[in-house]
Amino acid sequence: MPFNGSGLFTRVYNWTVDAGSAIPITASRVDTEDNGFATGLSNCICKDGQTTITANLPMNGFTHTGVGNATATNQYASYGQLLNSITPGGFTNKIRNNSFLVSSRGTSGTITAGSPAYTLDGWMLFAGSANITWSQSGTLGYPALKSLSITGNTGVTNTQLYQRIESIVAGYVDGQQITFQASITNNTGATITPTLIVSHANASDNWGATTTDLSVSLQSIANGATAKVAYTYTAASNSYFGLQFILDFGAILNSVAKSVSVSNVDVRVTPGITTGLNNSPSPVEIIDITAEKLRCARYLPAFASTGTDSPIPSIGITSATATINNILIPFPVPTRVAVTGVTVSAASHLNTTDSVVYSLAVSAVVIGTSLSNTQALIAVTQSGVGTTIGRGATLKFNNASGLMIFTGAEL
Are 256 and 57 in contact (CB under 8 A)? Predict the structure, then answer.
């Protein structure tokens, strides 16, 4: 064999030796020598990918350099790609409710033109010049189970979906190389190219004034397709004031027949990845739903009914006015700041109870004065009488659609 088993090529003949020994050059001897060359070359690896490897390749301590990220399960990953996937702490996803499962305010609604408002927990939506609608929809693919669907309207001039990241969370990515990614379904009738806009607050969690850090076109998405868009860049050094990530769809949603859906959103530190459009971002991280609900409760404490006799964690005492109970509601986690208001699905969805009178209808609920980031005091007006001053009092839902939300802690 031309190769000796250790990678050293061995010739069959030596023409100088043959000449000294008066051995003539014959066709058979030349063919044998050339066939050795051919066999040896066939055992080499072609750089254009023609060769199929037939055995393990001992690297002797050396590495493959300049490799791309793996895109299939039978490909090896680059070090940078592995680092993105397994490193904890600042390398975890900074987006809350990125699976769009948490819906404290409900699962659908309308956005008034020029007035951005919250939709599913953590997500705000803006419409220019005409109202648009939104709803919680099905999965766009693994791993998220839900998505946010946005339906346009005649005359819409701009549509933006965005999330603000609190300063204490954004601080982990300050000045770091990070990657934004999302899955988007396009049902607009034409190819779309969303724009990613990133800005930071000029003062900690104060969104009255911001500075734009990035405005860039993402990957194009064909009509009827679901695709992943991603971009890697270096976060601004003032990101610790709080970050805002905007998906800008421009004027494309200018008809009620046009819609887009978004899911699987991820923002994390990704060292070692080439900056710019990223066609192979690391796997999306989805947080356990119980932990996600608690994370969302930091910004919007919400209590939802589980039936027609559903207690609300509460403790209070009947006041000097027998028909008004002052009731303290503890929050499951401390809120970002003290809450400032309370809304309920309907006062009639609530009943008060005390140690003697089991259930009295409620006619009004207002926020009290003893407010903090761990609890809120509310004044509950009963529509009936029967309580005695100084008795313990609690609240419960009497309707399966009952909902109580405390506002003021959102970004």
Answer: no
